[in-house]
Amino acid sequence: MSTLAELITETVEFIRTEVLPIDDAHDGDVEAAGGENLRIRLQAKARERGLLTPHAPAEFGGHGLNMSDRAPVFEAAGYSLFGPMAVNVNAPDEGNLHLLAHVGTASQRERYLRPLAEGRHRSAFAMTEPAPGAGSDPGALLTRAERADGGWLINGRKRFITGADGAGFFIIMARTSGEPDSAQGATMFLAPASTPGISIDRHVNTIDRSMLGGHCEMTFTDVRVSDDDVLGEVDQGFRYAQVRLGPARMTHVMRWTGAAQRAHETAVAYTAGRQAFGARLSDLGMAQQMIADNEIDLAATRALLREACAELDAGGRASKATSIAKTFAAEALHRVTDRSVQLCGGLGVSSDLPVAKIARELRPFRIYDGPSEVHRWSIAKRAVRQYGS
Amino acid sequence: MSTLAELITETVEFIRTEVLPIDDAHDGDVEAAGGENLRIRLQAKARERGLLTPHAPAEFGGHGLNMSDRAPVFEAAGYSLFGPMAVNVNAPDEGNLHLLAHVGTASQRERYLRPLAEGRHRSAFAMTEPAPGAGSDPGALLTRAERADGGWLINGRKRFITGADGAGFFIIMARTSGEPDSAQGATMFLAPASTPGISIDRHVNTIDRSMLGGHCEMTFTDVRVSDDDVLGEVDQGFRYAQVRLGPARMTHVMRWTGAAQRAHETAVAYTAGRQAFGARLSDLGMAQQMIADNEIDLAATRALLREACAELDAGGRASKATSIAKTFAAEALHRVTDRSVQLCGGLGVSSDLPVAKIARELRPFRIYDGPSEVHRWSIAKRAVRQYGS
Amino acid sequence: MSTLAELITETVEFIRTEVLPIDDAHDGDVEAAGGENLRIRLQAKARERGLLTPHAPAEFGGHGLNMSDRAPVFEAAGYSLFGPMAVNVNAPDEGNLHLLAHVGTASQRERYLRPLAEGRHRSAFAMTEPAPGAGSDPGALLTRAERADGGWLINGRKRFITGADGAGFFIIMARTSGEPDSAQGATMFLAPASTPGISIDRHVNTIDRSMLGGHCEMTFTDVRVSDDDVLGEVDQGFRYAQVRLGPARMTHVMRWTGAAQRAHETAVAYTAGRQAFGARLSDLGMAQQMIADNEIDLAATRALLREACAELDAGGRASKATSIAKTFAAEALHRVTDRSVQLCGGLGVSSDLPVAKIARELRPFRIYDGPSEVHRWSIAKRAVRQYGS
Amino acid sequence: MSTLAELITETVEFIRTEVLPIDDAHDGDVEAAGGENLRIRLQAKARERGLLTPHAPAEFGGHGLNMSDRAPVFEAAGYSLFGPMAVNVNAPDEGNLHLLAHVGTASQRERYLRPLAEGRHRSAFAMTEPAPGAGSDPGALLTRAERADGGWLINGRKRFITGADGAGFFIIMARTSGEPDSAQGATMFLAPASTPGISIDRHVNTIDRSMLGGHCEMTFTDVRVSDDDVLGEVDQGFRYAQVRLGPARMTHVMRWTGAAQRAHETAVAYTAGRQAFGARLSDLGMAQQMIADNEIDLAATRALLREACAELDAGGRASKATSIAKTFAAEALHRVTDRSVQLCGGLGVSSDLPVAKIARELRPFRIYDGPSEVHRWSIAKRAVRQYGS
Asked: Are C263 and C355 in contact (CB under 8 A)?
C-alpha cells in the first residue's frame, strides 16, 4: 500500500516536472514534440525512476497492478496528454499487454510482451474496418484468414488502427470461419510490422494529435502468419476481444479523468485569478455552478470507475458496469472540459491555456470503444431482459 | 454478512407483499390509507418479522447497521412510499435516532430513543424557520432559548417541520447565544409534544402525500425545557446538526433510490408489454435511450452513495462526498422518474401506474436538505480553495 | 388591430381580477372550485365583457381571430388555469369548434357549433383508445361504425377523452373501412351525449385537476348515428383529424405559455423579495441563470409558435412547423415551471405559491397531442427524406 | 422580392460550386488555402456574379439588404467556412461597414467604407483588451486617447482583434474621458494600418482557422489620429458600440446557422447511407432523436433570429431580443454540430467529413460577442426589473 501511494506520488511528480512542460510547449501535438524520439527519451527517464509500465506483471518489470490500483496511477499519467506514453500505459499498448499476459503463450510473451513492457517497441490492435466491415458491430468483420501451408494468409482492410504507424507488431482480428454478421469465427493473430503484405495506407486526419502512430488505414495482403503466432485459440477471437475490452475501456477512463482533472484545475485557477464586474470570476454564481458541476461529474466518474474495477478485480466480466462507466465517463469528462473552456473565456479556445487541447483530445472518446449510443442500446436490452416481464 | 443478505431479502419480500398493495391502493396518500393507524399496523408486522428499525443499536432492538449496510436495506424499504414508515427507517425519525444514539445521555436514550426504536412514538426535528429565519442558511436562526429558573424558555416559529403533527417529541434548535446570521450559538433541546406552549399551526400543503404528520408550521411560546433535556452541550447545536446532516442526506438517497428503481422497473415492464408502430415500445431506440439513461443514473447514484457511506463509516465527516452524492442523486432520481413517466405515456400521468406518484413525492428532494444550488455553492467554494491559487 | 390590442388588455384584466383569485383559492382544482357551475358563472361574466369565445366566427358571436391573433389572447387566458374555460377557449371545445367551422354542414353548425360558441354546452373528441387501439399511432383505431338502417351503429372503447363527463355532444372517431393499422378508413360522427349506448365508465385519475369533465374511459355500445351526423365525408376522418390537429397543438402551446409565464413571474417576484446569504436571491448567479433560461425558453417558444401560426394562417398544413413548435414548447415550458418551482424553494412545492400546481398541470403536455418521441420520429423521417440521399 | 429569392439562389449556387471545394480541400484552414490571395480571387468571382457585399448600401454597390433579408443570404454564405469571406459578409468587416454606414461622415465613408464594400481592403475592430481591460465588461476599457496638436494620441494594448493582420484600417476604441470601469467616455477612431505606432504583436493561437488575419494581440503606441478620423462624436463610443453590437450578433447567428446546417445535412446523409445492426443508421431511434433535435434547434434558432431582425428593422435597439437570440443560437448550433459529429462516428472526428471542422470553428461563438453567462446575467436583470416587485 505504501508502494502504491509512493508510485502515485512519484508518477504525479514525474508527469508535472518532466512531461507537462513538453506537452504544453507543443500544444499536445506529439509529432511536433518529437514523436518516437520523444517517447524513447521520456520512457528512459520513467524507467530510471521505476515508473515505466507499472501494470506489467512483475516478471516483465512492472508492479502487476490490479485494475483498482491502476486507476490512480493512470489518472496521474493522464494529467499530461503525453503522460500515458511517457510511463507506457497508453492505449493500445496497455490493452495489448493485458491481453498477451492473459492469453499469450510463454514464447509469445517473451517475443511480444517483454519488449512492449520494456518500451522497446509499440503495438497496434487491428480490429476496426471501413464500412461495411467491423465497426460498432464487431460481428460485421470482413478480414479473412485462410489456411495455407501449415499457417495462415490474412487479407483485408482496416481503419482507425491507433498507433499503427511505427508499431513493432500487430494483433490482427480476422475471420477464420462463419460469415460476416456472425458473432463467431474470429481469430487473433500476432504479426511483426515487417511481415510482407502489411501496408499503412494513410493516417486518418482526426482532431486529436497526442497519439503516436496516428489512426491509420491499413491493408493486409496475403500476410502470412504461422500457427505459433495465433493468439489464443482459433475461432475464439471475439471472446478474447471481450477480455481486452472491459479493462481497456476502464483504463481509457482513468487516463481521460486525469486530463479532465487538469482542465478543471486550470479553469478554477483562471477564474480565481480574474476579476470581472467587481468580483473574482470564481465568486460569480454561474461560474460556481460550472465548477461544482465539474466536481460532481469527476466524482461520479471516479465512483463508477472504482466499482467497475472492483468487479473486474474480483474476476467478473463486468460488462454492464464497464459499459455504464465508459458511457458516463465519456460524456461527463466531455462536459468537464467544455465547461473548463467556457470558464476560461477567450483564452479557453486558445493554446495559451491547456483546456482547448484537452477538449480536442477528449471528444473522440464518446465515439471509440463503442459510441455512447451502442452502449446505451446494450444497457437497455439488458434492463428489458431483467425487468421486462 | 449472511444476516445482511437475509435482512435485505426479507425486507424486499415484506415490502412487496405487505406494504406495496396498500400504497398502490391509495396512490401513496398515507392519510387516506390509514395514517397513524396504518403505521402501527405495519410496524407491528415488521416487528414480528424482525425487520423493524434495523439501523438501531442492538441494545435498542436493531441490527446496528453501519451506513454501508443501511444502503441496500433502506433502498428495499423505499421501493414502496410507505416502506420506510413500515420498517421505521423514515425521516425524520431515522436521523433523530441516529443523533440521539451519538449525542444523547443514557437517560435521554431511554426516554426518547428507545420508544422511537420500538415504534411507540414518532419524532420531529424543528430547525427550519419561515423567512428571514433559518432555511438554506441555518445561521439565520431566530428562535431563542433563554435561561429561566434553572431551565430554558423557548420562543420562536418553525416551518416545514416534517412529521410534526402526531409526533411524540421534538428536537428543537434554538439560539442560546450570538445574533442571527452567526454560525455559532445554537443549542438542541428535547421536548415531549405535550409540553405547554408547543403549537402546530397548520400543515403546509405540499405536493407529497406519503409523510405521516405532514410538513407543519409551528409556534413555540414560552416552552419550558429543563437542563436534562438539553441534547449535547449548550451552544453546540450547529455542530450536532452537522453530525445528523451527512448521514441523513445519505439515508434520503437510499430511500429515494428504491422509489426511483420502482418507477424504472414499472416503465420497463410497461414498454416491454406494449406495441406501437409495429414493434415493442421497449425495442424503439428513443425508449431504449431513456431506459439506458435510467440505468446509468441509478448506477451513478448508488456508486456515489456507497463511497460517501464508506467515508462516513470510516469516521469521516464526508461533507464533500455527501454533498455531491445528495445533489447528484436528487437530480438523477428526478430524471429517472420523469423518464419513467414519459415512457408510460398517458398512463404515466395517472394513478393507474405508480410512476406519477413517485415523481410527485421525489420532486421536493431537490429542495430540502439543502437545495441543489446551495450544495453547488459549497462544492464550488471548496474547489476554489483547493485549486484557486 | 386596436380591437386586438383591446381584446388582449381586457382579457388580461378579466383573468387577473375575476378568474385568478378563484383558481388560487382552490389550488387549480376545478371541481373543488365549483365545476360546471363555476364555468357557467365565469362564462357569463366573460360574455358580458365581450370576451367569450373570441376565436369563433363572427356569425357565431366571436371575433373570428386567425391563429396569429389567437396567440396573445389565448396566452392571456392561460395565465390562470381556469382562464381558458372562463373565456371558452379551452381544449377540446376550442379544437372542436375549429373543426365544425371548417367541416360542418350549415345544420351541424347551428346544432353543435352555435351552442358551443355560446357556452351553452361543452363537447369532447373521442379518438384515443386503450391499447392496442388508437394512441400515439392513430392508425391503430379499433372502434367501428357499421351501416344499419340508413344510419350507423358505433361500437368501441375510448380512453383519455378529455371533458367527456358532462359534455353535451361527442365527436367520435370510428373505423368505417379498412383494418386496424390502416391509416385510411376512419369517419367522424357527431352524437349528443344523450344518445343511447354512450357510457362514461370512469375518470382516469390523472395528476392534473383543472380540466372540467376529466379524462374519461368510455364505451360506445350500438350507438346509433344518422347520416346527418356524419361530420365531413365518410372515410375521411384521418384527414379531418389532421385539420384539427395542427391548430389544436398550437392553441395548447398558447394556453400553456400563459401558465408558464405566470410560474416564471411568480418565481422572479419571490426571489426578488427574499434574502439569503447576504443578498437578494434574485441577485445570486445560479438564480439569475434559471431566470434567464426561463426568459430564453419562453422567447423561443413564442417565436416558434408565431412562425407556425403564420404558416397556418397562410393556408399551409404546417405539419413540420407545428410538430417542432409543440415538441419544443412542451419541453421548454416544463423546464420553465420546474425552474420556477426550484427558485421558490420549499414554498415552490406547496400550494402557498401557484408554481407547483402549474407544474402539475403542464407535465402531461409532453405526452398528449403526440408524445415528444413520436414528434421527433416524424421530424427525423422528414429530414432523412430531405437530406438523406 | 424576386431579387432576394434570386440572390439567395445564386449565393447558394456560388458557394457550393466555387467555395465549398476549396474549403473542404483545406479542412477549413484559410491560410493553408491561400489566405489573402484566396480572398481576392473568390471576391473577384463573387463581384462578377453580383454577389459581393450584398448588404452594402446601393451607393456602395450593394443591395442595401435590411437585417431580415440578410438572414437567408448570410446563412447561404455561411454554408462554407470560406463563404462569408468570399461574398464579403464576414466579421468584422460586415459590422464595421454597418457602423460606418450609420455613423461615418461622407468623407469617412468614401475613404474607408467604399473600399471595404468593394473588397479592396479589410478592416478590424480594436475594442477587446487583455485583463484587466475591456473584455466581457467593456467599461473596463484602459486604452487612452489624449489631445495632442489638434489631434489625438492613442496608447494601449488590445487582444483578440480579429482580422487584424493584413487589415487596411482599424476602428480603435479608446477612453477619452472617465476612469476605467466607467461606462462612459469612450471614443471610436479610424486609423489606416500604416499609421505609425500600430503593432501586431502576435496571433493568439485559437482553435479556429477560417478567419483571415487571425485574432491578434496589438499595441498602440502614440498612434496619432486627426479629428477627421474620429468616428462619430467624442465620448460616444460605447453608444456606437451598441449600434454595432445588436446587428453584429445577429449576422454571426446567420453565418453560423449556415455552417451548422451543413453539419446537419452531412450527418443525415451519412447515416442514411450507412448500415449497422441490420438497419440504416438513420432508421435507428437514437439517431432519429439526434436528427430531430438538430431540426428543432435549427428551427428555434431561425425563429428567434427572424424576430430579432424584424425588431431591428423596425428601428428598435432589440437588446433583449438579440441577446436571447445570440445566447440560444450559440448553444443550439453547438449542440447541432456536436450531434452531427456523433452521428458520423469515427469519421465525424476526422477531416474526411466536414463536421469536425465546423464544430471547431463554432465553439468560440459561445464566448465571443458576450459569453453566454454575461448575456444570461443581463437577461435576468432585465426580468427582475420587470417582474421583481
From this structure: yes
- Provide the CB-side half-sphere exposure for B318 (13 A, CA): 27
Q: ipTM exceeding 0.95?
A: yes
- CATH assignment of the domain containing B12: 1.10.540.10
Which residues are within 8 A (CB) of A124 and not within 5 positions of it... i.e. 6 or more apart? A92, A96, A161, A162, A163, A164, A167, A169, A170, A171, A213, A216
Residue range of the domain that includes C46: 2-90
Helices (H) and strands (E) in chain A, counts: 14, 10
- B277 & B191 share domain: no
The β-bridge partners of B161 are B216
Q: Chain B: residue nearest D281 by CA?
A: B285
Considering only CA atoms, give the Rg of chain C.
21
Question: Is-contact B53 B97, C-beta < 8 A?
Answer: yes
Packing angle between helix B285-313 and helix B67-78, nearest 10 degrees? Answer: 140
Grid cell, residue C58, equals: 363572427
Residue of C nearest to A283 (CA): C285
Tell me if A93 sits within 8 A of A244, measured CB to CB.
Answer: no
d(CA D67, CA D249): 11
* Apex B374 CA angle, B247 and D330, nearest 5: 130
Query: Of the candidates B252, B168, B244, which has an alpha carbon nearest to the alpha carbon of residue B213?
Result: B168
Q: For residue C88, which of C124, C125, C119 has the smallest C-alpha distance?
A: C119
Peptide bond into A132 cis (omega under 30): yes
What is the maximum alpha-carbon separation in chain C?
Answer: 79
How many domains is chain C partitioned into structurally?
3
State how far the Cα of A3 lies from the Cα of C153, in Å rounded to an integer: 85
Which residues 76-135 of A are in CB contact (within 8 Å) with D?
Answer: 128, 131-132, 135
- Measure CB to CB from residue A300 to each of B293, B304, B387 and give the nearest one: B304
C-alpha cell belonging to residue C258:
400563459
Same domain, C205 and C297: no
Each residue's pLDDT tens digit, C171-225: 999 999 988 778 889 999 999 999 999 999 999 999 999 999 999 999 999 999 9
Q: Tell me the count of C-D CB pairs closer than 8 A.
A: 134
pLDDT tens profile B54-111: 999 999 999 999 999 999 999 999 999 999 999 999 999 999 999 999 999 999 999 9
∠ at Cα A353 (A348, A354), nearest 5°?
Answer: 100
Q: Do A379 and B296 touch (CB under 8 A)?
A: yes
CA distance D146 to D169: 20
Asked whether residue B242 falls in the same domain as residue B382, the answer is yes
Phi and psi at residue A236, to the nearest 5°: -105, 15
Q: Which of residues 231-290 of A touch B (CB under 8 A)?
A: 264-265, 268-269, 271-273, 282-283, 285, 287-289
User: Neighbours of C (≥3 Cβ pairs closer than 8 A)?
Assistant: A, B, D
